[in-house]
Specification:
By secondary structure, the chain is mostly beta strands. It contains 7 helices and 34 strands. The strands form 7 sheets. Strands 13, 14, 15, 16, 18, 20, 21 and 23 form an 8-stranded mixed β-sheet that branches. Strands 3-17-25-24-19-22 form a 6-stranded mixed β-sheet, with no helix packed on it. Strands 4, 5, 6, 8 and 10 form a 5-stranded mixed β-sheet that branches. The chain binds copper (II) ion (CU).
């Protein structure tokens, strides 16, 4: 039997053994051919082959065999569509709390289904896969400690309309083409309701999930997580907001109602007929690309929308729901003005910061959120643009009046007690690795050198504190997300990645750097930059059971940059 090297890898050889077996993978952005390279086990391994930069842009631009007429978004009229506001779901039914028969919880039924969504006035409506017919899906909202039940129903068609790669783990030919499972990103949910990637539903099936919401007020979001195809399902439109509110937040009297606006950002590519386009590698048998970047950024599902505001303060809940794009957002009058709006960041992934942080720009990696208050009083009667770098995404039209007396934000928001590193019972050093998967002619990113199917190695004890030190040996920044827990960024520290790769020695190139004030709150996703040790600290609270941690560049996650971890009950 001819054993494909990839099969060999999957069938249990350690990566190191596989490396020894032949020129399979290499991991360097720059290395000398023939140099000794280092495997994940720490042993020196001869003969692996150099890999270049990930080639993301090259593969992303690679053409599909299908003849298409691309849409050039810059040719569209700008700011002709009002910004859609996702509908907030209202429950009409109560059901018994599965963990406490004396309690009744709001129950929601959310179907996933194909729908036509208009992304721009002048474009034909786009076929998307949606939650309840909308993209982004309807917003789910709950109060801290109250919780809710959602029956997620797969009513999608039997065939996918985006290019599935059957060579990716979990997406093989033996798997149904259309599978879906919902994960509420940032929710402290029991394992059975977390949306484990292998807990997918085929069309016609549903699952009842319980979200106890025993957590602080925060901007969460929900999205598809089906093994091997989550990048395609989310790209097709399976994303939505999930808000948790609480009394402490209420007491701050932040802008609400019409003045609380979710802004869900995601980039896409379209054909001129309005169809979604997801590029491929050019190899029909292995269409996976290493990262997707689109030329059209949707804000709440609309291209170049506008928003009318009063000259008062507004609260924007920014969600980066893109597959791979990192945004740097700012708000300012159209150039050549040198003015800009101050973005007062009041919250991050897992809720309120200790105090508002005034910023000129905010950087958001995939899956990160920023809760931001902007006071438009000083811009009455003017027009502003929310831009990513210099590319406008949303026009904000500030009414001339009546102007209100500006009300300052509270000086403090919520205490965020730092977790002391001395509280940690364990420190794990985990590498982010980049390989060139030669047989498949593509990049391969792994967490700590391990594949999804390798035995679970991270088994924190429920209730204990751990530090995870993420050593990024790749050329990319990876937004790393842990399910279940909220964490704090402890510090970041530059190290000599080349030396680590060749000798396994950790040589620091600088002092540890604490997080910036707007990253010093509770997080669930952290950007691990190249050549950097990113240390996070967290208490594994909530539930014992199996969860996942992964890169939130969805193309990476789909190709093995995802691992299970298991919270074990104290023995
Ligand atoms: Cu990644």
């Amino acid at each position: 039997m001819r054993v494909d090297r990839r099969t060999f890898l999957r069938d249990g050889g350690t990566l190191a053994a596989a490396l020894l077996a032949g020129p399979l993978v290499g991991r360097w952005r720059a290395c000398n051919p023939g140099s000794i390279t280092r495997g994940v086990s720490g042993r020196a391994l001869p003969g692996s082959v150099c890999a270049g930069r990930s080639g993301a842009s090259a593969t992303t631009r690679a053409s599909s065999p299908r003849v298409r007429t691309p849409l050039h978004p810059d040719a569209l009229a700008r700011f002709v569509d009002p910004l859609p506001r996702p509908r907030v779901l209202v429950s009409t039914e109560l059901r018994t709390d599965p963990t406490d028969s004396r309690r009744q919880l709001p129950y929601y039924r959310v179907p996933m289904r194909e729908a036509l969504v208009r992304v721009h006035r002048d474009l034909t409506a786009t076929r998307m896969w949606t939650y309840d017919g909308e993209m982004p899906g309807p917003t789910l909202a709950t109060r801290s400690g109250q919780g809710l039940l959602v029956e997620w129903v797969n009513e999608l068609p039997e065939r996918h309309f985006l290019p599935i790669d059957r060579t990716l783990h979990g997406a093989g030919a033996d798997r149904p083409e259309v599978r879906a499972v919902v994960h509420v990103h940032g929710a402290k949910a029991p394992p059975a309701s977390d949306g484990y990637p292998e807990d997918w539903l085929v069309p016609g099936r549903s699952a009842l999930y319980h979200y106890p919401a025993r957590q602080e007020a925060a901007t969460l979001w929900y999205h598809d997580h089906a093994m091997g195809i989550e990048r395609l399902n989310q790209y097709a439109g399976l994303i939505g907001c999930f808000l948790v509110r609480d009394a402490l937040e209420d007491a701050l009297d932040l802008p609400g109602g019409e003045r609380e606006v979710p802004l869900v950002l995601c980039d896409r590519m379209f054909d001129s007929d309005g169809a979604l386009y997801y590029p491929t590698s050019g190899d029909p048998g292995k269409p996976w690309i290493s990262e997707f970047y689109g030329d059209a950024t949707l804000v709440n599902g609309r291209l170049f929308p506008y928003l009318d505001v009063e000259p008062r303060s507004y609260r924007f809940r920014l969600v980066n729901a893109s597959n791979a794009r990192i945004y740097t957002l700012s708000m300012a009058p159209p150039s050549p003005s040198s003015e800009h709006c101050v973005l007062h960041q009041i919250g991050s992934d897992q809720g309120l910061l200790e105090a508002p942080v005034p910023l000129a720009g905010i950087t958001l990696a995939p899956a990160e959120r920023a809760d931001v208050v902007v006071d438009f009083d000083a811009f009455a009667g003017r027009v502003l643009l929310l831009s990513n770098h210099t590319a406008p995404l949303l026009q904000v039209r500030v009414a001339a009046g009546p102007r209100s007396r500006p009300r300052p934000l509270p000086a403090t928001l919520r205490p965020v007690p730092r977790i002391a590193s001395s509280a940690a019972v364990k420190t794990r050093t985990l590498t982010l690795d980049q390989y060139h998967d030669l047989p498949n002619h593509r990049m391969l990113m792994l967490l700590d050198g391990k594949y999804w199917h390798d035995p679970v190695t991270e088994k924190p004890v429920l209730g204990t504190v751990e530090v995870w030190s993420l050593l990024n040996l790749t050329d990319d920044s990876h937004p790393i997300h842990l399910h279940l827990v909220r964490f704090q960024i402890f510090e970041r520290q530059l190290f000599d990645a080349d030396e680590y790769r060749t000798s396994g020695t950790l040589r620091w190139l600088g002092a540890p750097v604490p997080p910036a004030p707007n990253e010093a709150g509770w997080k669930d996703t952290v950007v691990a930059a190249p050549g950097m040790a990113t240390r996070i600290i967290m208490r594994f609270e909530g539930y014992a059971g199996r969860y996942v941690w992964h890169c939130h560049l969805l193309e990476h996650a789909a190709n093995e940059m995802m691992r299970p971890f298991e919270v074990v009950a104290p023995g």
